[in-house]
Fold this sequence. Notes:
single chain, alpha/beta, Rossmann fold, 9 helices, 32% helix, 20% strand
Amino acid sequence: MTDQKKLLEFELLHDAHPLRIESAAGSSPCLIVSFTSVGQERDKWPPKEFVGLASQDGQNHVICITDISRSWMNSKGMSNLVLTTISDYVLKHGITKVMAIGTSMGAFNALVLGRKMPLARIICFTPQYSVHPDVMPEEKRWWWFRKQIKVWPFKKMDKLPDPPVPIYMFHGDTPDERMHWERFPTASNLRHYIFKGADHNFVRNLKGANTLRNIVMAAINDRPGRMGKVVQRAGGLRREDYADYALAEAHFEARKPRKRPASLDD
């Protein structure tokens, strides 16, 4: 998920455990906030994500937010610190439009930000509905990080950021994905897409043929028509259409193959 970042120069805005916030200046009044996911190595800072796509060759300002504790924004004071840092940056650089993007935990954090400040767009790939053991007892992943969380100001995403902010959300349809996306509420400002046969890590497969770039650009520019075409070519469906697809698939899988009439076998 890591994009090319070598052409961007990052300034450290905050660096105190467990949070690191960095920025790269752009030329437009648009800021895109990118939240990192859990990453692969427990004791290392997760790498920045979506930086190249968000920056658009230096056009947009980018803020990258990394949480080495992997708290899903539940660490004490974290959400207020993130909000204050972003607000200060907006005032300093004359930002008029703020968007948020992330995958997995980063996507959940992007939704949290949208509940705390007005955003122009939220782009979230495979967000969890919750990682609280009481809310999601069937969720067994990321357990080492989850058991470190003692206080849960953001226990579950039972309420999405309010309209009119467009929310673009993407999930796979494997059981570990379904148990999360089925719990998300529907909303007039939510465009929720389900990708057939895709698991939690399907975003890495979207990089081929510029599919991920096309999806992110359609979301940034708020072009739902364009988004629908790109998603459909990649095997995705609107959530409301996926229900009909799943019923049809289950029907055909349940059908027993018909036997040839005995007269045709003679």
